[in-house]
Every structure is written in C-alpha cells, then in structure tokens.
Design brief:
Distance between the termini: 44 Å
Helix content: 10-25%
Number of strands: 22
Strand content: 35-45%
CATH class of the largest domain: Alpha Beta
Number of domains: 2
Radius of gyration: 25 Å
Bound molecules: adenosine-5'-triphosphate
Length: 376
C-alpha cells in the first residue's frame, strides 16, 4: 500500500514491502486467571480472566484510566500482579510463586511513542531484540524485517530523521523480528496523523496475520477495535465487562454504558405492555419483563428512514447538518421532551422545517432494564 506523508516540508511516498514476506512465529496462548493489581488505593486491574487463542488478534478497549495499559504491562512482565496468574502456553509467567521477566517471555512489545533508541541507527534498533544471534545473522534478519515494512533504504539513518509513520514501521519491525509468540501493542496508531492512520492500520493488521503471532492491542477508539479485532475485550474501572467478536459487542452490548461507548444513542423511557417496550416512537420487543415495568430504550441515530405518511411516528425536522456522506437531523416527536438525533444517508434526508413519518429498524434498538444494567 502506498502512503505519502510530509517530512521536513516535502511529501515522501513509499511502499510497504510485499505482503507474505514476514517470518511466521509459533503463536502462543495467553491466559489471565483472576488477575488483580492496585496502585495504592487505585484498583487498576480487578479480577480479570481471559484466554487468547493462538493467532487471535484481540483489542483491549475502554475509556481512559480503565486499566488497559496496566493489563498489557502485566502481560509483558513489566508489572507483577498482586493476585492471580498469567500463563503463556500453559506455562506460568506470573503467579504466587513464579515470575518470568519480560526478556524471557518471548513477547513483542510496541508502545504508543514507539520508544526507539535515539542514539542507535535504524538497523541497530531493529536488531536490538536479536542480541542472542551472531551480529551478521542479526543484521540479516533485521534487514529482512525492514524490507517488509518498506524501509530498507533507511537502515543507516537515525530515528529523529524519520516521520511518525516511518518510526511506527521501525518499531513494528523491531517487535516482529524476534518472532514473538505474543505481540503486545499499546495504542500503536494514536501517535499518527489521521490521514496515515487507516493505511498503517491495514498494513499492520496484514503483517500481524502474516506472522501469526497472538496479538493484544490497547485502544480507546471503538471504531479502531471494531475494524481490527477478531475479538474485543471491553474494560471499565479495572474490570473486564464483556468479551466478544466486534459484531457481538456492537449488537448486544452487556449494558447501557457499553452501548453508549460505541454509539451516541437516543435514550427513551419505555413501559412494558404485552411483552413489548412501548415508547412514543413505537413498540419494540422486550420479553420476560413484568407488565408496566419501566425500561430504558436506546435507539441508534441510523435506525431511522423516511416512511409513507401514517406508517410510523411523525417528526418535525428542527435542524439539519450535512457531514459529507450523511446528514445529521435534529427531530422532535410528539410525546418526547428531548429532540432525537437521526443520521441518514446524504440525499435521502428531509430538509429543515419538514414534517414526515419515520420507520425505525428494530435491529438498531436496544432495550435494557431501567437502570441500564441488564439487556432485555
Ligand atoms: P489510558 O488510556 O489513559 O492510558 P488506561 O486504560 O491504559 O488509560 P492505566 O494506564 O492502566 O489505564 O491506568 C489505570 C489506573 O491506574 C488509572 O487510574 C491510573 O491513574 C492508575 N495508574 C496506572 N499506573 C500507575 C502507577 N504507576 N502509579 C499509580 N497509579 C497508576
């Protein structure tokens, strides 16, 4: 994939190396069993258990301060858990009696700031993890990895001469070159310019699949996690709230807070009538609740489309905002105090000041108990 970026005021364009040329690893299984760690009074990670299958790409997702980085550091061996066990391929890396230091874990690490050694050339940065090999062999391997990320011409340069995107590639090459069983990546794209991020992300994903290492990536960006991960681990306040494929987590979030994390929802109060949640926007399936119970109904902005008159709740378009491929509408409906946010494909959206009927896709509606804690 071609990427172009500004370096010292000039545009540079270069290709990543051919796909399929990175060395494969023997992927490891990473297991956490009831792991906890506090910093003084702050419980950073609380009773976390999961099992990453060999070769799986997992995103650790959650708001700032929820414990993602601490969990990654525990996996790496930079932090030691207070309780619980960490295993790679069923071998105990950390536990009540054992602790294997980071350099003995066969893991690859990549940080948000790339953490390249400024005083070392690019090739020496990449060869750093191969100190066990003969120098000539280490340089050969490092050169091969640099070629895969398209930077073989930069081997004698120093990190400060490279753009952010190039530094990210060097860090990636350095992390994969020892063929780690498990790759741990902390916000690996957040330091990059938005224009570059998508292509770097796609290339990194291709490279991870190629090396077949098990990978755990920390991110606070739900869109990034949905696009990258085979499975998402959703964290909040030190706890693992939900684990599932991107589709499972998006379609069936564990609670209302998880749903809000992925999408700006319209939130209404409904009442159970004959096994349905009744709201001013219509009724939605909500089984096994008591008649008359209040429930929380969440409707995604993209659930709405124009309907023939009389075949859906009627709304009045208070405001419209064009955002390129979509239009955002602010619509008021009878019976609702708050206006509703609606997102429609550009070209299909009604203009400001119009009244019309809307139909609502029930697949884009989530119903929870009134406190938001349990999906119905
Ligand atoms: P962010 O996305 O902002 O990096 P995070 O989800 O990665 O956040 P952590 O960095 O793991 O969260 O932090 C979890 C909690 O532990 C936070 O309250 C943080 O302030 C605290 N914390 C992390 N490291 C330390 C430390 N070395 N000493 C004291 N408190 C810490």
């Amino acid at each position: 994939m071609n990427t172009a970026e500004f370096v010292n005021g000039t545009v540079k364009s270069h290709e990543w190396g051919p796909r399929g040329t990175a060395g494969a690893t023997f992927a490891g299984r990473l297991t956490f069993e009831d792991v906890s760690l506090s910093f003084g009074p702050i419980p950073a990670v609380r009773g976390v258990s999961f099992d990453l299958k060999p070769g799986e790409i997992v995103c650790l997702l959650g708001p700032s301060g929820c414990g993602k980085t601490t969990l990654l550091r525990i996996a790496a061996g930079i932090e030691r858990p207070e309780t619980g066990r960490v295993l790679i391929d069923d071998l105990e890396m950390a536990g009540p009696k054992n602790f294997v230091p980071p350099e003995k874990r066969n893991i690859g690490l990549m940080f948000q700031d790339f953490a390249l050694f400024p005083h070392m050339s690019i090739i020496d940065n990449v060869a750093f993890g191969l100190r066990g090999l003969r120098r000539a062999d280490a340089l050969n391997e490092a050169r091969h990895a640099l070629k895969r990320v398209g930077l073989e011409d930069y081997e004698r340069d120093y990190p400060h001469r490279l753009s952010g995107g190039e530094q990210q590639r060097v860090a990636l090459a350095r992390a994969i070159v020892p063929r780690p069983q498990v790759m741990l990546m902390d916000e690996p794209f957040s330091g990059l310019d938005q224009r570059l991020r998508d292509s770097v992300r796609a290339e990194t994903l291709a490279l991870l699949k190629e090396t077949r290492a098990t990978a755990m990536l920390v991110t606070h960006d739900p869109v990034e996690a949905l696009g990258l991960a085979d499975r998402i681990l959703l964290m909040r306040r030190g706890r693992l709230i939900q684990a599932g494929t991107p589709t499972e987590i998006y379609r069936r979030p564990a609670d209302a807070e998880a749903a809000r994390f992925f999408c700006d929802m319209n939130e209404l109060t409904g009442r159970i009538r004959n096994g349905q949640a009744e709201t001013p926007l219509g009724t939605f399936p909500a089984q096994s609740r008591a008649e008359g119970e209040a429930v929380l109904v969440m409707v995604r902005p993209q659930a709405f489309s124009a309907a023939p008159a009389g075949l859906g709740p009627e709304g009045f378009v208070l405001a419209e905002r064009f955002i390129g491929d979509a239009t955002l509408l602010t619509v008021i409906f009878k019976g609702l105090e708050e206006p509703v946010a609606i997102r429609m494909p550009a070209g299909t959206a009604p203009g400001q000041g119009t009244s019309l009927a809307f139909s609502i896709d029930p697949a884009q509606v989530l119903v929870f108990t009134a406190d938001g804690s349990t999906p119905i």
